[in-house]
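Ticket reopened. Same input as before:
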Amino acid sequence: ETGVTQTPRHLVMGMTNKKSLKCEQHLGHNAMYWYKQSAKKPLELMFVYSLEERVENNSVPSRFSPECPNSSHLFLHLHTLQPEDSALYLCASSQEPANPGNEQFFGPGTRLTVL
Amino acid sequence: GQNIDQPTEMTATEGAIVQINCTYQTSGFNGLFWYQQHAGEAPTFLSYNVLDGLEEKGRFSSFLSRSKGYSYLLLKELQMKDSASYLCAVMDSNYQLIWGAGTKLIIKP
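Engineering reply: fixed in the latest deploy. New output:
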């Protein structure tokens, strides 16, 4: 495997379910990100981790809970979501979070539908 | 507030040239990125500009004017595979990427 992988690619869940999204990067990067992408809207940064420590949390509701056990893996735990949380969730990684010019490498995303 | 503006959709003809504009107002500036995103796929990096001027990379070029808060992505010799969304993003003073909503480019034969 190369680059950034995400599982599952598609997820349908009810509002009372608990599920987790997984992201893995094989690039040796130190920073990982969760983004939310809704149709015709800008990418919304949710969380940033640098060397397994959370450095940014952009006022995300507590029903989204990130976990970064090591620099290669990132999880997003979901519980009691709302229908408006339906979106494409993208994971990304970069060498450093605070270094101009460091491009971010994205995974293919998880298409989440909340019923 | 911080804002990135780009057209929602553009249409161009195969073999032609198209210019996608991006204007921005951000708290600080640490460079501007262009990404390409095909439907259902991950965004992929195209270019990075931090100094004024034109950066050329094959059929794609990106221009930046910091004084005007303006950039454009120029695509030459358009191919059908260039049909995608093009995302403009600015890195602000906190090193966060502020994203535009993307420009959907439709290429017609």
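Chain B has a mean pLDDT of 96. The CA atoms of residues 54 and 63 of chain B lie 4 Å apart. Please confirm and we'll close it.
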